[in-house]
Amino acid sequence: MIENPTTFNSSGKNPHFFMEDFPLHTAPHTGPVSIEISELNLWYGSSRALKNIHLRLPQNCIFAFIGPSGCGKSTLLRTINRMNDLVLNCKIEGKVKINNIDIYNKNTDVVELRKRVGMVFQKPNPFPMSIFDNVAYGPRIHGVSKKEIPEIVERALKQAALWDEVKDRLKTPALSLSGGQQQRLCIARTLAVDPEIILFDEPCSALDPISTGKIEELMIQLKDRYTIIVVTHNMQQATRISDYTAFFMSGELIETGRTEEIFENPKDERTEKYITGRFG
Ligand SMILES: Nc1ncnc2c1ncn2[C@@H]1O[C@H](COP(=O)(O)OP(=O)(O)OP(=O)(O)O)[C@@H](O)[C@H]1O
C-alpha cells in the first residue's frame, strides 16, 4: 500500500510526488516504494546544489533523471549511496529513505549501504586485474567463501550479458576488453554483491551505438530484479528505457511522472523547452 503522499509535505512547498499525479491503477508499477526522498537540500560549501527535493521511486522500474548540465542530477544520484560523504564541505539536510530506513541515520553502515546500492559510472572503470578478479572483488571483500566465488562470477557475468564473450578468457586483464565490454564488466561487478538498487550515471556516454544498445537492453532486463536510476543527457535513451522521468533545473525538481507523459504532455513550460531542445 502506498502511503499518503501528503505525509511528506511538511514544508508546504510544491513537492513532487509522481504517484500523486497518476491514479495508482494506471501506473505500471504499483508495488512498494523503494526510495523516498524528502525535503532534501545539499550544499557544496556555500553553493546550494539541491533545493527541497521530494521524490518517491518505486521498486523494479527504471527512473531517469534528466536536465541541463549542472542542474544536480549526479549530485542527487550520489545522495542515494552517500557518495557525497566523500566530498569535503558537502552539507546535506533532509531524508533519503530506502525501504523506510533513513540512510543518513547515524547508525547506517555505509559499506553495507553501498553493497545494497551499486553504482555504474560514466566511464567504464574496471580494476587493473583479471576479468574474474574484477567480478570476484566485491564478494571477496564481503567475506564470501572461496568455493562460492566461481559460481557468483559466472552468474553476474551471465546477468550482465558478458559471459559468452569472456568465458574462455576469465584470467585475461579486464583492460583488454572493449569499452562496451568493460562497461558490462562493471555492471557484473556491481551485480556480484547482490544489490537492490543500481545507480547509473550516464552509463553510455562513452560508448558507441551498438554497445549503448546492449547496455540499454541489459538495463531493461535488470529491472525485473533491481530498482534502477539512470542519469542521462540522451532524451531518446530516457524514452527508450525508462518508466518514470524526473526533470531538474538549477537544483530543483521541476516535474516528474511517467516517461511518456513527461515527453508527450509535459505540464511545465521549462520541461517542454528542455525536451524539445529549446534550451540546455
Ligand atoms: N564535488 C563538488 N564540489 C563542488 N561543487 C560541485 C561538486 N560536484 C558538483 N558540484 C556543483 O554542483 C552543481 C550540480 O552538479 P552535478 O554534477 O550534480 O550536475 P549534473 O546535473 O549531474 O551535471 P552534468 O549533466 O554536467 O553531469 C554544479 O553547479 C556543480 O558545479
Describe this entry's structure for a reader:
This protein is α/β, with parallel strands linked by helices and 280 residues long. It has a single domain, classed as P-loop containing nucleotide triphosphate hydrolases (Rossmann fold, 3-Layer(aba) Sandwich). It is 32% helix and 24% strand. The chain has 11 helices and 10 strands. It has helices spanning 18-21, 73-79, 110-116, 131-141, 149-159, 163-166, 179-191, 209-222, 235-241, 259-264, 269-275, and strands spanning 33-44, 47-58, 62-66, 90-98, 101-102, 117-120, 197-201, 227-231, 244-249, 252-258. It has a 6-stranded mixed sheet with strand order 6-7-8-3-9-10, with helices on both faces. It has a 4-stranded antiparallel sheet with strand order 2-1-4-5, covered by helices on one side. Strand 4 and strand 5 (101-102) form a beta hairpin. Helix 4 (131-141) crosses helix 5 and helix 7 runs parallel beside helix 8. The longest helix has 14 residues, at 209-222. The structure holds adenosine-5'-triphosphate. The site of adenosine-5'-triphosphate has 11 residues, from helix 2. The site of adenosine-5'-triphosphate (ATP) has 11 residues, from helix 2.
